[in-house]
Amino acid sequence: MQTYTHQKEILLVVNASFFSKDRVKRNEAEADKHFTQKEKLIDACWNGLVPEILPEFFEMPFDKSMTLWEINDANAFIDLVFCNFIETRENELSVNPYIFMEFQGYN
């Protein structure tokens, strides 16, 4: 029996108005005021916020079992990788421009 892996990658633009402070709200303790909006967004993603704010990405039955596997932090965006487990990543199919641009020269 062959095992199929499902992998989903979501690119979040950090400075978009969609991720205002109302959506990515943490406990506003005194220490938390020193975190940037990007750091708060990364923390919220690790705490399971993505399926709540982007439910259309998790509509299929196999999507419900996927977990956040990796967060790639870039200058203007955050690349989220959801999957059950990773056997091999197909980097040429990535939505992360820093990853797939490496393979453009090979075409």
List keywords for this structure.
3 helices, single chain, 17% helix, 107 residues, globular, alpha+beta, three-stranded antiparallel sheet
What do these coordinates show?
The chain is α+β, with helices and mostly antiparallel strands and 107 residues long. The protein is 17% helix and 20% strand. A 3-stranded antiparallel β-sheet has the order 1-3-2, with helices on one face. Strand 2 (67-73) and strand 3 (77-83) form a beta hairpin. The model has no long low-confidence stretch (mean pLDDT 76).
Strand runs, count:
3
Reported for the largest beta sheet, the result is:
3 strands, antiparallel
Low confidence ranges: none
Query: Into which percent range does the helicity of residues fall?
Result: 10-25%
Q: Report mean pLDDT, rounded to a whole number.
A: 76
Using the alpha-carbon principal axes, give the shape.
globular
Classification by helices and strands: alpha+beta
Strand order of the largest sheet: 1-3-2
